[in-house]
Prior knowledge:
Blueprint: H1 13-20, E1 62-69, H2 76-94, E2 102-109, H3 114-126, E3 132-135, H4 139-144, H5 146-152, E4 156-158, H6 165-172, H7 174-177, E5 180-182, H8 188-206, E6 210-216, H9 222-231, E7 238-245, H10 253-261, E8 266-271, H11 275-284, E9 290-295, H12 303-306, E10 315-318, H13 330-341, H14 348-370, H15 378-386, E11 389-390, E12 399-400, H16 417-420, E13 424-430, E14 439-445
Parallel strand pairs: 1-2, 1-3, 3-4, 4-5, 6-7, 6-8, 8-9, 9-10
Antiparallel strand pairs: 10-13, 11-12, 13-14
Amino acid sequence: MAESDSTEQRVGRRDLLKYTGAGAAGVALAGCKERPETPTPGPPDPGPGENGTGDKPLSGRKFKLGVLAPTPESFPIGTSMVRSAELAAEDINKNGGIAGAEVEILVGNTEASPGTGREEFLRLVKQENIDVAFGTFLTQVTLQCFQPMAQTKTPLVCTAAAGPKPSRVVSQQYDKYKYFFRVGPLNSFDLAKAELEFLNLYAKDLGWENVGVLIENIGPFDPFAELLDENIRDVVDNVPIFKRTSSGTTNWTPIWDEVENANADVALIAQALTGTASIKQWFNQKRQFEMGGISVPAQVYEFWEEVGGACEYIFTMNAVTPQTTNTPRTQPFMKRYREKFDTYPVYSGPITYDGIKGFAQTVENYVLEEGLNAKPTSDELIPVMENLRYTDGTILPEFQFTPKDAKYAHDPQWSSMQETGVPVWQQWQKDPEIKEDYGTMHAFAPEQNKSADYAYPDWIDYPSDHPANQ
């Protein structure tokens, strides 16, 4: 089942703030109060010539890269996209550009609105003459860019929307829509597979025999819910609750009563718009079950401050955290971002950074191998991008796109959490060695990205033989 077409509603400013758990407009820009003790080195010095371009074949030319970001001045997903794109461009330009061509970043504010996203895509193409667009958050925004993308033959590289429908459309109508690629996140079906793998590997060890599932009833979660519902009973002993919850829910007490009365060990959630209220009420009511799964608000570094620490013990799937070492480049990137912006990015940041760096490396290799002295056309770029193999990323040790004849074409190739180390499972914990009086986004799974053991809520009365007491 593809993501519903009926979800093309506008996400307003108030919804964006609720989505991130933000109570103030400047949440993404509200910095931490401390900077890292050890500054992270910047990119290597450029070679000879202006910006190190020398006599490279595309010297004097420019690659204009658009970034379609939702409310980048305040919404963490949009802010992280734009800032990370700028860091990527800075790296590329300091190292000679793309075969000598300078990279310029141009931003389009989609406002998380399908109509606005389409308008901004067209503006960037027609007025700013971009070569490629990166970004888009919410699959309905991505899909609204498909017609202008096909008409103008401008590649669109998604870095923040998980719905599988765009890639399915590429598979079904390749010649028309071959210009779409997704560097991340994993599509919703793969996210469900990752959660099932996680449960299969860790549920028993964590003491989760009864799992209550609560998935927010919004279109982007439809494919995720479908696959999870079909398979979860094969990997956990008992699922007493499996329901979709309204995105308008503000009073979670009746729902938490239901979960508690069902003797659930954990509430396995998938939440976006309702994430803040549910978490605060779970914590303040000291409920007798654990809680986590996918919580977009809990992926934001400022969330601890926003909820006054009420997210302690909450766990969520994520791509990377300030503590993980997915690859040798993860920590240098995260520390550099913190050094420059006084905070950490959410998942859209490193995905956008890797997407732009991978694109630049692949295009430069193609230009040099083919002996070109002009930028490749958009139609020439497609097979180049289809053959992209990037091993210098911050999230995955190796990145490639699925082939054009795959069921979901031009998606990230992903096998399993155990093999790739992604997604990581983070939990908000107190760790005074990292920061006093502020939560740490520790990863407790998978093993290769583990930075701390899973922590059990200290108010739950566990039986003596429970793993919490071992």
